[in-house]
């Protein structure tokens, strides 16, 4: 069989694009691992906020929000968003570091300053002597990542899509308008390739003869610890700490903490560095009232960026029928609904959706040419 599209990578970017494409075409979704979303998607503790990322990322977040609020009929019976709220706090001498956070406030997504006493009441594990200033964004929500991914995959299957797992791509070639893909023990054929391979996307591009877009995979570490006695975890906001990139958020009745690290790494099944975990645990004890008696779980994930930290979506400038959907960085879950529609619109209509144009996002703003020339 010759599929209309072969999507490489069954993380959130690939699954969402495959879902949208399958509405009008035959689609094969290929995944190297034994399960979809094994790498970055499965290790994400995603929040939704319009006030995060580059200007283009923020606009795409806004374009994705209607999908999260009201997904298509039959997509899921479960909510995709849950209220959370986000607080940012600054220690004495670092109060000015919250000025850019306040500057990101908009009429629809306000960020407001709150008294330090209110911050301490809302988040009992904050140290009073380390909380000199605080701001709060009420509109931030948790994204139900597992529900979102599962719903995309189920919807893809209902639309006739086919998924091949344990199928790492080892070779790509194109002849007479048809791509031949060697994946696992299979030889597969398709008219158009959609490269949604995450940290491996430049490697897939090289197999196809495309120029690299300069993807850099960056490791981020996270741990789970128990909350202090008496703290009601579900009611807590996510807390960001000015002066570094660390944050702490509720996670299944416990607390997830991350140093917000962005350490360049190679594409791999990345594991947490023991020193990073030790440094993070020491920071938590010094900067909060959380007694870290045991690390209940630890992991790391890769977030992949190009230089300008905006996503790479579009047809390759030199290789025919080869579409990029990569470089989503730490914003990929938030942007997935919008970027999936963008991929489908480019493939079916040779242009971005109307709401992208209305938001002043053009093909050149997302396309791989800008990244390969950066």
Detailed description of the structure:
There is one protein chain. By secondary structure, this protein is α+β, with helices and mostly antiparallel strands. Helix content is 28%, strand content 28%. The protein has helices spanning 12-21, 55-69, 99-103, 116-122, 145-158, 201-208, 274-287, 332-349, 354-358, 363-366, 368-373; strands spanning 2-8, 27-30, 47-48, 81-83, 86-90, 112-114, 133-137, 141-143, 162-164, 169-175, 178-183, 186-195, 216-225, 238-241, 247-251, 254-258, 263-265, 297-305, 312-315, 322-326. The strands form 3 sheets. Strands 5, 6, 7, 13, 14, 15, 16, 17 and 18 form a 9-stranded mixed β-sheet that branches. Strand 14 (238-241) and strand 15 (247-251) form a beta hairpin. Helix 1 packs parallel to helix 8 (332-349) and helix 2 (55-69) crosses helix 8. The chain is globular. The mean pLDDT is 95.
Short overview:
The protein is α+β, with helices and mostly antiparallel strands and about 375 residues long. Helices cover about 30% and strands about 30% of the residues.
